[in-house]
Amino acid sequence: MKVFVIGANGKVARHFADFAKEDTAIEEIAMIRHTEQAGFFEERGIETVLLDLVKNSVDELAEAMKGVDAVVFSAGAGGSGFDKTVLIDLDGAIKAMTAAEQAGVKRFVMVSTFRTGREEMAKKNGLQIYTIAKNYADEWLKNRTQLDWTIVHPGILVDTPGTNQIKVDMGQEINEIPRQDVAHTLVSVLHNDNTIKQEFEVLSGNTAVEEAINKLQ
Ligand SMILES: NC(=O)c1ccc[n+]([C@@H]2O[C@H](COP(=O)([O-])OP(=O)(O)OC[C@H]3O[C@@H](n4cnc5c(N)ncnc54)[C@H](OP(=O)(O)O)[C@@H]3O)[C@@H](O)[C@H]2O)c1
Q1: Which atom of ligand 1 is nearest to the CA of 8?
Q2: Among 9, 20, 175, 212, which lies 20 to 30 A Cα-Cα from 187?
Q3: List of domains in the chain
Q4: Which of 19, 41, 73, 130 is catalytic?
């Protein structure tokens, strides 16, 4: 399966690249923003395309997605300003969804934030605009596209090594999860069509990634 990863140079997605390299069923195409980022992917035999969610058009994104089986969206402004949050986490995500549909790609896996919804969006904290952007990107994916979506809501991302043990559910108390385990979860989601039209929170837990994802109904 050809998987087009947006935000491929991000910390979660670099772990995804390591999994993809070992997984004969996954052929990654890494969407990066700068040529100097290509080496990491070339070392892993992964093709790169140079595109930017803000600077490039839907048509340009769609052209790069032609022949792809799935899109993974793991890009984000990462606290670089509210304007960027709206441009990347909200409009960039919607551009990616529109491009996927235009290119005839059905499968779309979104890395969202832990919790969305009206109550979360009303919280006047440093994450409010980000939460609003992620919420409406998720809503667009669910309600305004015909894509085979999965929305993954990770807890607080940490860089400790993955444990391969997770907990998936909705309405959990927020906790941490290693980025490596999020990447592993994304791989497992791609392998399990039972995750289509499903969304779930993912935290460190006591169930092996494959088992936890397999069990989702
Ligand atoms: N931090 C948390 O605790 C947390 C919790 C839940 C969910 N999340 C979500 O998880 C996602 C992945 O996390 P992460 O740690 O891997 O994030 P990250 O390391 O900040 O990666 C974000 C990626 O987005 C790319 N990007 C930024 N602007 C772009 C643009 N205009 N066009 C295309 N790509 C662009 C960046 O590219 P460059 O490498 O070129 O800068 C980077 O590779 C985040 O985006 C966030 O929404 C985070």
Answers
A1: 43
A2: 175
A3: 2-214 (3.40.50.720)
A4: 130
d(CA 26, CA 35): 23
Tell me if 97 CB under 6 Å of ligand 1: no
Residue 50: per-residue pLDDT: 98
Q: Where are the alpha helices (DSSP H) in 11-167?
A: 11-22, 38-42, 58-65, 82-84, 93-103, 118-121, 128-143
Q: What is the pLDDT of residues 102-138, one digit of tens each?
A: 999 999 999 999 999 999 999 999 999 999 999 999 9
pTM value surpassing 0.85: yes
136 annotated active-site: no
- Dihedral sign of CA atoms 171, 90, 83, 183 in order: positive
d(CA 10, CA 140): 23
What does the pLDDT read at residue 217? 80
